């Protein structure tokens, strides 16, 4: 193909250069397979226009444009339901979709993809079998495909640009200080009259390491600005210029000239209607109407907002044959050239042009539109009500459902009863309790005790289940964390969660996650996940993966993921510096000797070992010998010589001349180890190191390197002060633990190895993966932590208090279903006129107290199943459920039933069938029980696992003979033949229940997100062992503390 300009009317052109660079093999295979003619060379370069006036004529007129996302189904169900997995990579930007091929998308799915891109800014698809022709076809669907007058193209496909950094390096030399490729923050084609909309980059060849691309959200960047600053730029315009230069025809010697267009600084996306900041450092030249100095100040600040807030960015690691599709109207992007051209990178890009940018003053921000602003933001913006109206229309239920909705749960017996009946019962119990209390008061000897009794009883009363949820950000607004921020009110707030990847996280870590991530989020800052990978002997990839999974499950996304091992060189250099300052020494003491130096655990005087008196020169020599392999593990340590006179917060008078004593009462100041010898390769650094820093040495220095806001131990303050590095504020808050269980990794491993529990995710354990599998919602954990608050004292919580918090949360957030654990068949005779042979459909609410949750249909049949506990062979005046000659109400059913006879298995003595008849005479029943129709009417068989405490005592660690002797033999009770009603199918389809924290979207959650209340039984969730053929349910928590019935 002979070179030609993209517009035949242009005659003044420069002949393109001839490229001879060899194509990467994978790129060549893709292009050849697609039928691209490579015989005339690759890529094709159009003849380059020389003069600016010619280029202005290219696409200079306004064109009609319709945004595909604006016409899409807002649910995006056609697209998302066809995917096998959809993962949001951060809170604000970036989604990865698995299981779809872009070439196979229907028009409806293409529209929905455009809307998803408009909402999430950039969407990624790996493992794409995609030709350049198919890529061009998708781009054409989204708008006019841009054909660039200078950029190389795939031969025969104008508009399919070639992205090949090695080719660019032949035109402009690249090096470490001046990287090649698109290594600068920019937005594509801002100089167009109607700039770029959707861009689709498909990389068929990528380097094995590096070459990532970063995107930043314009929606979120705009929201980072204060309301007053937004007023400064709203409606303002700027001059945007092209990346490529041309000549002025009237004065060719004047030097390069650029295409310039005027567009708004803040624009509104036509599909979402949300405001987005739209500037970029590379191609936004100046603000119209301002002096250059004024313009530069504002623009440089806006660039920094975009580029320096890592929480509004996503960094994507490419793999071969991956597509990234983003919207240039709401993003900037930057391609990392950290691979330095050592490996090939090749791809093809198609950009669809969009509308002429416009601004709309009353358009909302993204978080305004989604109802995500907190009260302080609403007040700051002057909003008196939410942007969206989430109210639902009134739902007219049948008389039957209305009457059922009036039933109340008797927490004492677990029965659903009428309001009047419950009132009578409560009054009777109140009277009995008052009588008992009077007797106790009369028997008490001291009058003071009589007066104190009711106060104690009142203080011990538990809050009601229907009390409103507390402010989810309360712990950041008042108390310890509020005071912490007031002491150093710096922004941006940077925090971190620094777990050791040597085991699975437990409930105590949930508090640390909630505090660190939540504190940063509340103050508009960022929180890193930093793996403290300093002990290669115990670290495994499964722990790294599980930690990140649990953080996301709790609803947080790290602003960045770092590793302590990233800083091994820097840490080593600081260790040598500490030695040079006389504040560290090589110690050859045994563990027993070190224990003795610290008082032997018996409160004896503490002292330093003799090695503390070695010279700095000697210590440095020995430390390097440790590094070089002279010592074996446990033979030598580098210990910090913690000069207690520097400890600013101590009240103890120190003798600065006495270096041999350790007088401080804080164990964190007892010459902690800084380095130890480990003969184990590190999974990231290989065999480079034979010594590794300890947590106490690493943690605070990495916090300093990352500019963290707050530390947690006094030893950290001492170390940072000694080395003269940036000092985060030192504040330590109390840890969270649970009584009645064990959290020790060693002890849990013992139970796993001996088969006492199924694994680390056994629902009886208080590991986070175990709690998750049991079905505890992440939102309940966050609410529990928030309710506890943050103080400096360590907190040991009774399991029952934790379960109460879960129960309270589930009460208001999950649907209700009928479930029977131990079914017994009931045949209803004489009901031909009342029940159809095929079953009578009944409309049943998912929550009688909340019509907005919706309803579902169940079949009422002539044969039903009730729980065995709801039948007695002999009638009893104190038993209000089914018995011979007695009637009972059936939840949601049109009439009560009366038992007339029953059949028993002579071998087992168990009742196998109950015969009953409709009770058409009784108008009101004292009790209503749940029931389930046979499986042929849509019900399901299920195995139900009811979990009780794993241990018999509240302190298994103190049990005689060890914690294994305290195992509760009834910690798991299995009901293999339970029945669950047909509404389970819809509950599963609509999961997660509730949509909160890391389970915030439809379909985003595992089986454990299928949660419901089994009416009168307990709260349940589906287990990960469940299959389409066999449903397995876990009891999350009982309906009330004792779980018993009367």
TrEMBL record:
<dbReference type="InterPro" id="IPR011035">
    <property type="entry name" value="Ribosomal_bL25/Gln-tRNA_synth"/>
</dbReference>
<feature type="domain" description="TauD/TfdA-like">
    <location>
        <begin position="86"/>
        <end position="351"/>
    </location>
</feature>
<dbReference type="GO" id="GO:0005524">
    <property type="term" value="F:ATP binding"/>
</dbReference>
<dbReference type="InterPro" id="IPR020059">
    <property type="entry name" value="Glu/Gln-tRNA-synth_Ib_codon-bd"/>
</dbReference>
<comment type="similarity">
    <text>Belongs to the class-I aminoacyl-tRNA synthetase family.</text>
</comment>
<keyword id="KW-0436">Ligase</keyword>
<dbReference type="Pfam" id="PF02668">
    <property type="entry name" value="TauD"/>
</dbReference>
<keyword id="KW-0547">Nucleotide-binding</keyword>
<keyword id="KW-0648">Protein biosynthesis</keyword>
<dbReference type="Pfam" id="PF03950">
    <property type="entry name" value="tRNA-synt_1c_C"/>
</dbReference>
<dbReference type="InterPro" id="IPR004514">
    <property type="entry name" value="Gln-tRNA-synth"/>
</dbReference>
<dbReference type="Pfam" id="PF20974">
    <property type="entry name" value="tRNA-synt_1c_C2"/>
</dbReference>
<dbReference type="InterPro" id="IPR001412">
    <property type="entry name" value="aa-tRNA-synth_I_CS"/>
</dbReference>
<dbReference type="GO" id="GO:0016491">
    <property type="term" value="F:oxidoreductase activity"/>
</dbReference>
<dbReference type="InterPro" id="IPR000924">
    <property type="entry name" value="Glu/Gln-tRNA-synth"/>
</dbReference>
<dbReference type="InterPro" id="IPR049437">
    <property type="entry name" value="tRNA-synt_1c_C2"/>
</dbReference>
<dbReference type="InterPro" id="IPR003819">
    <property type="entry name" value="TauD/TfdA-like"/>
</dbReference>
<feature type="region of interest" description="Disordered">
    <location>
        <begin position="428"/>
        <end position="452"/>
    </location>
</feature>
<dbReference type="InterPro" id="IPR020058">
    <property type="entry name" value="Glu/Gln-tRNA-synth_Ib_cat-dom"/>
</dbReference>
<protein>
    <recommendedName>
        <fullName>glutamine--tRNA ligase</fullName>
        <ecNumber>6.1.1.18</ecNumber>
    </recommendedName>
</protein>
<dbReference type="InterPro" id="IPR050132">
    <property type="entry name" value="Gln/Glu-tRNA_Ligase"/>
</dbReference>
<dbReference type="Pfam" id="PF00749">
    <property type="entry name" value="tRNA-synt_1c"/>
</dbReference>
<dbReference type="GO" id="GO:0004819">
    <property type="term" value="F:glutamine-tRNA ligase activity"/>
</dbReference>
<dbReference type="InterPro" id="IPR020056">
    <property type="entry name" value="Rbsml_bL25/Gln-tRNA_synth_N"/>
</dbReference>
<dbReference type="InterPro" id="IPR042098">
    <property type="entry name" value="TauD-like_sf"/>
</dbReference>
<keyword id="KW-0560">Oxidoreductase</keyword>
<feature type="domain" description="tRNA synthetases class I (E and Q) anti-codon binding">
    <location>
        <begin position="929"/>
        <end position="988"/>
    </location>
</feature>
<keyword id="KW-0030">Aminoacyl-tRNA synthetase</keyword>
<keyword id="KW-0067">ATP-binding</keyword>
<dbReference type="GO" id="GO:0005829">
    <property type="term" value="C:cytosol"/>
</dbReference>
<feature type="domain" description="Glutamyl/glutaminyl-tRNA synthetase class Ib catalytic">
    <location>
        <begin position="493"/>
        <end position="811"/>
    </location>
</feature>
<feature type="compositionally biased region" description="Basic and acidic residues">
    <location>
        <begin position="437"/>
        <end position="452"/>
    </location>
</feature>
<dbReference type="GO" id="GO:0006425">
    <property type="term" value="P:glutaminyl-tRNA aminoacylation"/>
</dbReference>
<feature type="domain" description="Glutamyl/glutaminyl-tRNA synthetase class Ib anti-codon binding">
    <location>
        <begin position="815"/>
        <end position="916"/>
    </location>
</feature>
<dbReference type="InterPro" id="IPR014729">
    <property type="entry name" value="Rossmann-like_a/b/a_fold"/>
</dbReference>
């Amino acid at each position: 193909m002979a070179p030609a300009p993209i517009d035949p009317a242009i005659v003044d052109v420069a002949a393109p250069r001839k490229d001879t660079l060899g194509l990467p093999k994978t790129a060549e295979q893709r292009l050849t397979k697609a039928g691209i003619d490579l015989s005339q060379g690759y890529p094709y370069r159009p003849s380059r226009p020389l003069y600016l006036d010619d280029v202005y004529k290219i696409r200079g007129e306004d064109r009609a444009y319709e945004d595909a996302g604006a016409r899409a189904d807002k649910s995006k169900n056609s697209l998302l339901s066809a995917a096998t997995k959809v993962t949001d990579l951060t809170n604000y930007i970036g989604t990865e979709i698995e299981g779809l091929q872009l070439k196979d998308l229907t028009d409806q799915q293409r529209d929905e993809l455009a809307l998803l891109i408009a909402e999430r800014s950039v969407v990624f698809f790996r493992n794409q079998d995609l030709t350049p022709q198919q890529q061009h076809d998708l781009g054409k669907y989204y708008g006019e495909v841009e054909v660039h007058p200078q950029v190389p193209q795939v031969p025969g496909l104008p508009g399919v640009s070639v992205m090949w950094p090695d080719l660019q390096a032949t035109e402009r030399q690249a090096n470490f200080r001046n990287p090649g490729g698109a290594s600068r923050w920019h937005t594509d084609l801002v100089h167009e009259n109607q700039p770029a909309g959707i861009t689709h980059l498909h990389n068929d060849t990528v380097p094995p390491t590096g070459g990532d691309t970063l995107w930043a959200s314009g929606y979120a960047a705009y929201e980072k600005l204060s309301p007053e600053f937004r007023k400064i730029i709203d409606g303002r315009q700027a001059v945007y210029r092209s990346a490529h230069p041309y000549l002025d025809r009237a004065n060719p010697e004047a030097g390069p000239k650029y295409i310039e267009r005027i567009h708004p600084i803040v624009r509104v996306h036509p599909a979402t209607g949300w405001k987005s900041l739209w500037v970029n450092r590379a191609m936004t030249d100046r603000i119209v109407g301002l002096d250059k100095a004024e313009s530069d100040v504002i623009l440089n600040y806006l660039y920094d907002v975009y580029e320096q807030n890592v929480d509004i960015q996503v960094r994507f690691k490419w793999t071969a044959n991956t597509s990234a599709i983003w919207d240039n109207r709401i993003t900037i992007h930057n391609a990392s050239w950290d691979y330095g051209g050592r490996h090939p990178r090749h791809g093809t890009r198609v950009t669809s042009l969009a509308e002429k940018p416009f601004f709309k003053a009353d358009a909302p921000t993204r978080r305004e539109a989604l109802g995500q602003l907190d009260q302080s933001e609403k007040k700051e913006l002057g909003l008196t009500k939410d942007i969206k109206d989430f109210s639902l229309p009134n739902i007219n239920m049948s008389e039957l459902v209305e009457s059922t909705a009036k039933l109340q749960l008797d927490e004492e017996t677990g029965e659903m009863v009428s309001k009047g009946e419950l009132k009578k019962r409560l009054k009777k119990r109140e009277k009995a309790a008052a009588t008992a209390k009077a007797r106790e008061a009369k028997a008490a000897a001291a009058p003071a005790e009589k007066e104190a009794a009711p106060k104690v009883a009142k203080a011990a009363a538990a809050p009601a289940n229907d009390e409103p949820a507390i402010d989810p950000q309360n712990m950041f607004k008042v108390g310890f964390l509020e005071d912490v921020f007031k002491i150093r009110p710096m922004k941006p707030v940077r925090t971190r969660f620094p777990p050791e990847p040597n085991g699975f996280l437990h409930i105590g870590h949930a508090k640390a996650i909630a505090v660190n991530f939540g504190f940063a989020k509340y103050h508009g800052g960022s929180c890193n996940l930093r793996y403290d990978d300093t002990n290669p002997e115990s670290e495994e990839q499964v722990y790294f993966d599980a930690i990140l999974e649990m953080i996301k499950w709790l609803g947080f996304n790290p602003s960045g993921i770092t590793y302590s091992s990233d800083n091994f060189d820097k840490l080593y250099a600081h260790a040598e510096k500490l030695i040079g300052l006389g504040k560290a020494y090589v110690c050859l003491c045994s563990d027993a000797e070190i224990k003795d130096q610290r008082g032997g655990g018996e409160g004896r005087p503490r002292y330093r070992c003799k090695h503390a008196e070695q010279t700095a020169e000697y210590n440095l020599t020995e430390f390097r010998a440790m590094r070089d392999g002279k010592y074996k593990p446990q033979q030598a340590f580098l210990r910090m010589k913690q000069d207690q006179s520097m400890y600013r917060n101590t009240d103890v008078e120190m003798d600065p001349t006495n270096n041999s004593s350790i007088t401080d009462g804080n164990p964190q100041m007892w010459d902690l180890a800084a380095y130890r010898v480990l003969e184990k390769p590190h999974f990231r650094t290989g065999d480079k190191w034979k010594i590794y820093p300890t947590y106490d040495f690493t943690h605070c220095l990495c916090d300093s390197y990352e500019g963290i806001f707050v530390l947690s131990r006094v030893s950290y303050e001492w170390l940072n002060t000694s080395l003269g590095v940036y000092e985060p504020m030192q504040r330590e808050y109390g840890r969270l633990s649970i009584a009645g269980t064990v959290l020790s990794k060693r002890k849990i491993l013992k139970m796993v190895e001996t088969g006492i529990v199924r694994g680390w995710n056994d629902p009886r354990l208080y590991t986070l993966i175990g709690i998750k599998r049991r079905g505890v919602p992440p939102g309940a954990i966050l609410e529990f932590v928030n309710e506890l608050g943050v103080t400096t004292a360590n907190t040991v919580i009774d399991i029952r208090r934790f379960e109460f918090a879960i129960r309270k949360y589930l009460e208001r957030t999950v649907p209700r279903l009928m479930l029977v654990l131990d079914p017994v068949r009931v045949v209803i005779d004489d009901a031909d006129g009342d029940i159809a042979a095929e079953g009578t459909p009944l409309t049943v609410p998912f929550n009688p107290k909340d019509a907005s949750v919706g309803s579902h249909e169940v079949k009422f049949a002539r044969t039903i199943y009730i729980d065995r506990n709801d039948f007695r062979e002999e009638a009893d005046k104190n038993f209000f459920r089914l018995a011979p000659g007695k009637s009972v109400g059936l939840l949601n059913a049109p009439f009560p039933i009366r038992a007339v006879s029953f059949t028993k298995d002579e071998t087992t003595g168990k009742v196998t069938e109950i015969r009953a008849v409709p009770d058409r005479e009784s108008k009101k029943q004292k009790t209503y029980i749940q029931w389930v129709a046979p499986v042929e009417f849509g019900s399901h068989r299920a195995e139900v696992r009811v979990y009780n405490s794993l241990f018999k005592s509240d302190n298994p660690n103190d049990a005689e003979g060890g914690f294994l002797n305290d195992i509760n033999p009834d910690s798991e009770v299995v009901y293999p033949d339970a029945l669950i009603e047909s509404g389970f199918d819809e509950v599963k389809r609509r999961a997660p229940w509730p949509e909160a924290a890391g389970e915030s979207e439809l379909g985003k959650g595992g089986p454990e997100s299928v949660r419901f209340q089994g009416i009168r039984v307990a709260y349940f969730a589906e287990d990960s062992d469940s299959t389409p053929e066999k449903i397995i349910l876990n009891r999350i928590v009982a309906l009330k503390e004792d779980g018993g019935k009367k």
